[in-house]
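Hi there. Long-time user, first ticket. I'm pasting a complex I've been working with (about 523 residues overall). I'd like to know whether the download I got is complete or cut off, because the file seemed smaller than I expected. Thanks.
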Amino acid sequence: MAAPTVQRSAANPIRKKGKDLPFPLNLYQTAVGKKWVMAITGLMLLGFVLTHMLGNLKLYLGAVEHNGEAIWDIDLYGEFLRELLVPLFPRTYFLWLMRFGLIGAFGLHIHSAYSLTRMNQAAGSRYQSKQDWLAANFASRTMRVTGIIVALYLVFHLADLTWGWSFVSPEWERGEIYNNLGHSLARWWVGLIYIVANIALSVHIFHGTWSMFQSLGLNNPRWNNLRRLAAGGLAGAILIGNLSFPIAIMSGMIEPGDPEASISEG
Amino acid sequence: MSNTLNLTLQIWRQEGPNAAGRFETYEARDIPDDASFLEMLDVVNENLIEDGKVPIEFPHDCREGICGTCGVMINGRAHGQEKGTATCQLHMRKFSDGDTIAIEPWRAAAFPVVKDLVVDRSPLDAVIEAGGFITAPTGTAADANETPIPKEAADSAMDAAACIGCGACIAACPNSAGQLFTSAKLWHLNSLPQGQPERFKRTEAMVETMEQFFGSCTNHGECSEACPKEISLDFIAYMNRDYIKSKRVNRKLAGQR
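Hi, the file is complete. Here it is re-exported in full:
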């Protein structure tokens, strides 16, 4: 019998296990725990994206009569958000509470994605021949790219319509949601940014929604087909809703103006 | 009665773990189409030996699809293009005359190449050593059916136990993650009564050992497609569920440390 030509060594870990932090922080030290955090924060962000889209549908309700004054319905909705739980909290306090929750979720979502990407890069090794993908789809392969696009778009979107930076949207005025939207998205390059970013967002949501159940271990062979369907349906609904706004404004269906005039025109 | 094939092979050659590897091209002539993929490599090696050259080192043992020793990347797919088939059970009739076949070893940072197509898969052993066993009193074997097991649980455990530990899941994964292997080994024991006493200790230990060697799951599903035993992705979800639970349960067992 031939003697072995190569001496095999014991398996060498490519990563050392650090000291355990106290529970529940130690969950975030492992990849499975990080994926769990990513899924929970993803669910929070998904809830925001969905309600944000549904809220924006108020754009199509045009102007309404409120306390004897004409006002754009979406402006009224914006004021409602600022006055959420008002007798209990001072104005905008509850809104800020929710915002801090979202900022925290966004930060954790990005940090876990970053550190898991680093881990995967250290664990992987490229094939020299072309690898043939069987199950990985466009959405799952581009999560990092679509994620970065959405993060950059978020900064632009805030500068454009929340902070109203004058060099991004010169005609911006606080509280005038309908007109700010109408002025900003009427510019073709802004509309294009919104369309591209929202396609990226929906692609991201498609894989994220399906993946979330897997990471959380919310799995039952009986529901597996429904999970694909739910991911597709949710991503599709958000895509259609969010794309309709820039398209409606760019095509002139929604135009900025005076709500009084809009009502008297009928 | 069989037809023969003439093939062009591009095979990864590497003298040792630290040597630089490269593809070399070989002509495989008159390969009977009822030969297995490994038998085809045997024929190529016979010719190389006759020519006084060093034969190609490739991993193989039982050649009946149950030991998990064989496994190479064939045209960019782990174990080749046939679903649910290990390299040894892939037959040359699945190829056509004149094909060019690229053959590469498994690649992952934790799987260094030993020689040519052979990689060191000892990290898989390390994961098993961390908890892939049950502790049972020795003595005569327990009577059959002494421990009643629901049919569904037995079926599910058997589906997981089908894993032969070849490492195709890690080889096919873009992140070189070991989730499918580890979760199959976990569910094999965690779904049976015999595995319950150590269930959460096992889950925590095996997952954390796995993470010292492999990447993290991004839920592409490539592993399950590549698996010669078609192990389901569902086991990964069960593992994720048990792992989070283990962090809480093990802390209780350890007296709130």
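A couple of notes from our side: Residues 2 and 8 of chain A are 15 Å apart (CA to CA). Chain A has one domain: 31-121+139-255.
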